[in-house]
Amino acid sequence: MLQDAPSPAETVLDVAGLAKSFTVARSWLGRGRKSLRAVDGVDFSIRRGETLSLVGESGSGKSTLARLCLKLIEPTAGRIQLFGRSIESLPPRAMRPLRRNLQMVFQDPFASLNPRLTVGQILGEPIRNFRIAPEADIAARVEALLARVGLPADVVSRRAHEFSGGQRQRIGIARALAPEPQLIVLDEPVSALDVSVQAQVLNLLGDLQAQAGYAYLFVSHDLAVVRHISHRVAVMYLGRIVEIGPVERLFSAPRHPYTEALLAAVPDPATRHRAGTRRRGTGLRGEIPSPIDPPSGCAFRTRCPLATERCARERPALMAGKDGHAVACHVRQD
Amino acid sequence: MTEPLLRIDQLRVRFDTPEGVVHAVNDVSFQVGAGETLAIVGESGCGKSVTALSILRLLPSPPARLAGGSIRFQGQELTSLGETALRQLRGDRIGMVFQEPMTSLNPVLTIGRRLTEGLRRHHGLSRRAARERVLALLERVQIPDPSRRLDQYPHELSGGMRQRVMIAIAVACAPSLLIADEPTTALDVTIQAQVLDLIGELCEAMGTAVILVTHDLGVVGDVADRVVVMYAGRVVEDAAVDDLFSRPLHPYTQGLFAARPNLTPTVAGQRARLTEIPGMVPSLRAGVTGCAFAPRCRAATAQCRAQTPLLRPFDSSGHAVACHHAGGDA
User: Fold this and answer.
1) Is residue A317 assigned to a domain?
2) DSSP letter string over A110-128?
3) Does this entry carry the keyword Mitochondrion (chain B) (predicted)?
4) Distance separating alpha carbons of residues B275 and A8, to the nearest angstrom
5) Which pLDDT belongs to residue A1?
6) pLDDT 10s digits, A79-95
7) Which of B255, B257, B271 sits opposite A228 (nearest CB)?
8) Cβ of A57 and B259 within 8 Å?
């Protein structure tokens, strides 16, 4: 976390025009099926040693996008390249050896660890499955993994329920590291943790990235955490990226009205204390519309204070500006 | 000094579990003045929700057991009050809003039915009169298209809408005190801001005092007048919000501020490591000897491990702290 984004280096993941639709039944009789565009044409790339965060409200499509990148679900359209190789249409069998490069850490460390397995079994399994090390070396590997995430070696024989939330998340991270991946998708990895433990896990993630150069795709609704951990940030709204850019620029000079509203909504002790007054009524009106029936033109226009007639007619494209800061807004990109 | 709206003294709550007695709340004392917003802040298991739920005796008993102390509301002792009298208070003079509006709304009752219940019970209104009052209430909590909502069930509403309905129920009888237990934790930040604004506006208009239970210091800074910080079932600090933010005295409070990533980093352009609070919250199974925070505290001494520090006034502004070494003195 201490160093800035790496210079143009190896691109680990590159996605273009990525989309995912789900078919939803409108009535319980199953007639009149409509489709829901959870992810609707998304482009981005992540480099080695870089953290790209996805932020947005519930229903913005950020978790679906994360799962698409791992091919946990199949895209409806678009391209996913891992080290320059297209993987979007690879069958599961061909995908399997590549999976060791793509790992995931889940939000809920209580639900994502098998309660029947010991820590040693949880961490040994991926090493064995991906043939990372010969059987004789697995115990030593597991011990090394535990040391990397700050757990004592004697926990190998214990089961997940014996640990606190923070320790379980360390086990979840160790499991993701086991096959020596290149990209780790972290879906709200600290949301279930208390502040004091959250700091421990965020520091650990930063240290691991500094040591091994992992690329992180970090999904979070907590903008303070995102500001802390990211190199770049993509803001999503109804399945599309509305703004993407380097973290400092996006937070200090947000361009999309939605990004501005998100930032204004965060209760921040630092800003409050400086202002000394209570901020009220500066937030967004209304809620995120249904993705089954999204607004025409710019999806954000129904809640946007700047919306014009053009916003209802024409969908704004994500236009790259300087310094890799891009925004999809008719009003703000002119 | 006049009697505050709510005065909690030396409250003790125990949970009798098969694995032993959990000392969930230990000698907790604080007051809430009329119209004041008090935040109770702390991490999981610190006893903040248990304290708040104890006020209206909403904890399942067993396992929960009131083991001592007093809760006085408008001069009336609640700990010895009968169940019938307590039910008269709930939803009338004291309203409640919970974290998860889906589980606290009955899924088989329409919003209209659920909302009119309290008014008909406490105020003896007719069905029609209650429905009209409820429509006005839903408008007050800024629910669009309120007459249609009355015939809907909870699952047909978004999380933010459900929390608005809970707030409408809680303030239907213009209570003197609203207890809100993590009311926005399950909501997106934009909706959280709307809901906090709404609670603030309504309570200000009615002169209602609020006890807000939260783990989020950001929320505390936005809405509270005064803050009680809890750790391991005890109050470790009690202060006006500005005093707490400008000069946190307890090492745990200081740790909470330092551990939290900020939206506006203090050093521009540089992301430092977060300051960790080492270790974790102690088990409350066994009674804790000495200061419960001592094992995680940099400044801990032999005295801290032997003797439990009591909450004592630190200065004349009403800033109180439970630490042997607060402010540098011994």
Assistant:
1) yes
2) TTSS-TTSBHHHHHHHHHH
3) no
4) 31
5) 41
6) 999 999 999 999 989 99
7) B271
8) no
